[in-house]
Amino acid sequence: MINEEIQKQISKGKMLPLMEEFYTIQGEGFHTGKAAYFIRIGGCDVGCHWCDVKESWNANLHPPTNTDNIVNNVIKYANTVVVTGGEPLMWSLDFITSQLKKNNIRTHIETSGAYQLSGEWDWICLSPKKTKLPLEPIYLKTNELKVIIYNKNDFKFAVEQASKVSDTCELYLQPEWSNKEKMTPLIVDFVMKNPQWKISLQTHKYLNIP
Predict the structure, then answer these.
(1) How many CB atoms neighbour CB 181 within 10 A?
(2) E-state strands within 49-133
(3) 68 is annotated as contributing to ligand binding
(4) β-strand 35-41 against 80-84: which pairing, if any?
(5) Strand order, beta sheet including 64-66
(6) Of 11, 32, 72, 189, which has the highest C-beta tally within 10 A?
(7) Is 27 labelled as part of a ligand binding site?
(8) Is 169 known as a binding-site position?
(9) Is 127 marked as binding a ligand?
(10) How many domains does the chain have?
(11) Which domain holds residue 67?
């Protein structure tokens, strides 16, 4: 049971339910191949059946961690941080991004957009899910739209989502890992016919890194 004082710190974003943190090479999307420090925050109710980090869903399994300690760990390794989850926007991210910015750290987030945007971001990767759609205000702030392709119906969903973002937003389709052999050829064909889109692969899994 989390006591009242810890709950107060969590509500201010001064503590976060940290699942894991690590320094690695980004494996997906626009920034593939770049070094970054990843902060994975526990808690998610979007419920993608193919999620590869379902252990992140229950925030109670991940200890409330002092945000200043997380920031200090970032500073030791990297000049870019990626905040992900779970669904990181379930928590207030204003404090952590303000502290990162004070230390000249570039801030990136990957989110489903299902919760109100908080924090100050240099790069927003929106990965929308049908089970809980993004809130409208995030679309025009999005730098990168990354849609996971699990079946053929997901192409229609991707086009619908792309109609809501700005003209400068980078568009990516990514095959869901367990179904990549079937869907990758369809994604290749789609991108060749619709060159405003690009293909994102989970290169970190091919490289066998976190």
Answers:
(1) 8
(2) 64-66, 80-84, 106-111, 123-126
(3) no
(4) parallel
(5) 64-66, 15-25, 35-41, 80-84, 106-111, 123-126, 144-149, 170-175, 197-199
(6) 32
(7) yes
(8) no
(9) yes
(10) 1
(11) 4-207
> Could you identify the residue written with the tokens 């049971």?
1
Residue 50 marked ligand-binding: yes
Across the chain, which has 210 residues, the per-10-residue mean pLDDT values are: 86 96 97 98 92 90 96 97 97 98 98 98 97 97 98 98 98 96 97 98 91
Is 26 annotated to bind ligand? yes
86 annotated to bind ligand: yes
Q: Is 142 annotated as a binding residue?
A: no
- Residues belonging to the chain: 210
Rounded to 5°, the CA angle 6-107-41 comes to 40
Can you tell me which residue has the tokens 């409208």? 136
185 marked as part of a ligand binding site:
no
The verdict on whether residue 129 carries a ligand-binding annotation is: yes
The model scores a pTM over 0.85: yes
* 128 annotated among ligand-binding-site residues: yes
- CATH number reported for the structural domain that contains residue 20 in this entry: 3.20.20.70
With beta carbons less than 8 A apart as the criterion, state whether 72 and 66 touch: no
